[in-house]
What does this fold into?
Amino acid sequence: MPQFLLPPAVPALAAHEPTLDAELERLEANWAASPVSIASGGRALPRLAMELADGSPRAMSHLIEAIRALFTTSLADDWPGIRSLLHSDLTFRVQQMLAGGPAHVLSTLHPGLDWKDDKLIVAGPPLPATFTDAAGGLTLMPCAFGSSGLHPLVPGGNRRVIVYSARLHFGPQGNGDTLSTLIGAGRARTLRALTTPCSTTVLAARLVVTAPTASAHAGVLRRAGLITTRREGQQVWHELTPTGAAFLAANPLPGAISRQRVSQRSRR
It folds into this structure.
């Protein structure tokens, strides 16, 4: 096996999936350890950028909270689906590795990436010479956004990373989910999770979100007349209305549509 394909020097990194909090802590630690240099390009810099360059802990705190708010608003509801997609892609690559070795994985990873004559060929501008250094290994990192991206990264030191698009593009436009397109991915998942009535606590567990997030989605669906909510003691229970059930039936998941057609053909 080529040296640069060997596992990273710290094997635990390959198996550890950091949380958002852990990533934010790492960001803060890296910022504290290394001076920040910001090129203005002749333009006036935002105040936050200038404060970060000056080493202001207050500015870093603002940046971390902004990142957390962006994740909560834009990604939190969809994160379980994104995570599932990335895990699926990694499982597929492991199967390729076992079946044909690392050369097979590299030659099928992306049209712009190939393995020939014991060399990794990357389409596009030439990579820095340090990319050929075998000392630090190579990390392949799937990305859930975009459908044909390939981004060789050489951040420095011994870490080499190639970011490539996962096998299936994530999102309503990529998977044909009309329900997500109509009401949003988070509320679509919530409605589908209520095919069996449950409490807010159970709903949050099904969605892998916090109870307040599950409750907020349920509130929108209730106001739309798609579910009903009732209180039993300390628990709040949610259940589909006939309108909600009909709405689900009219907008099934693409996989469910395929299975339904196969079932109909088999009965014929």
In short: DSSP finds twelve helices and eight strands in the chain. Residues 1-15, 169-174, 256-268 have pLDDT under 50 and may be disordered. The chain has two domains: 3-11+79-165, 174-267. Residues 3-11+79-165 form one domain.
